[in-house]
């Protein structure tokens, strides 16, 4: 006969479909290790109150370790009636050590237990992801350092705007990812708060020392309100918000590269390792890695949206709806881990086609420089802008490039143009004028790289 933790007041067995709906063991078994860790700490805290003897505590702790051995060597057998990881571990503990197992759950509820497990798991997941993100940022920085001399078109409205350094474009994403990493550290602070010792909702009546529990489990602080602790999921939502923001940034980065890798642009060629072909068109090489990074972002928003909807209308405190939280973070973690890894690898292995980058630059992208030429001769910018615009119009009318206008063409528009205007048509020189910090000159790009490296070293 099946053992149920809550069987006392119930007659008969639950309906099969109800059981399938209710069970979470098939996914929350992921938490087996943190569940046992939390239970061992809780057994010790019970011993500290004198509610169980030191000997009983030892039996519990050793028994929990035995359960852990079964999980790690794959011999743990999930039985029907094991609703969730908490139930399964306790059932097995009782089989191994007998009735004393029944003392472990004194004053504890699966409501504080599940949050404890979740926070422990999420804290580890966050540490893994911050390492992955750091590695990814380092790959981006390495590429930015390597390709400092490549100049290519910068865009607004996806129209050619001004020449910029390729590294400057990479760094634009480095700074977005750096902020994402800062945000992840923030999320960790709110995940790293002990839920255990709040019971079902009202707290712990046996004087369990929660500061001791926090220390045992490595939590920075202890939660302040038992209702809030079992009923809120904002730490989880905040993690999903972080995942949404980070995947949004990577998706946008991927979109840039999808465009840059198309034949029409040809700025980059993806490594074969991160591309796939077509089953019909033999010539095709598709940027599937980047498309999946873009696509997965949509899934992550779905996880955030579904979890927000699940929480928004719940009466305080715990409701079974909240059980859905685990699948969201498990899936988000898996997606983020692979997406961050692949992003670093794609950028590290692609080829930049310097020739195509240079060919894509055109004289009209230096129209701003014509205006700046006049500004440097003392012409007010608004007027200079107007004059440069007239030069563009004249070139269009004469069906020549802006750089093919003659000195007399220029002087016909404004007498402040002299023969040095013919030296404007140099992309490198154009890029190099943006020396203020944050600009695209070599000096500024190098400073940006240096600052991010310093930040990584200090963090
Ligand atoms: N498996 C449940 C969850 O993840 C544990 C809490 C169940 N608590 C309860 N009172 N039914 O949320």
Q: How would you summarize what this structure contains?
A:
By secondary structure, the protein is mainly α. It has 18 helices and six strands.
Structure overview:
With 459 residues, this protein is mostly helical. The protein folds into 3 domains: 7-103, Fumarase C, Chain B, domain 1 (Orthogonal Bundle), CATH 1.10.275.10; 110-196 and 231-359, Fumarase C, Chain A, domain 2 (Up-down Bundle); 363-458, Ribonucleotide Reductase Protein R1, domain 1, CATH 1.10.40. It is built from 18 helices and 6 strands. The strands form 3 sheets. It has a two-stranded antiparallel sheet. It has a two-stranded parallel sheet with strand order 3-4. α10 (234-260) runs antiparallel to α11, α10 runs parallel beside α12 and α14 (367-376) packs across α15. The longest helix has 37 residues, at 110-146. The chain starts with 15 loop residues before the first helix and ends with a helix. Arginine binds at residues 24, 84, 110-111, 114, 318, 320, 322-323.
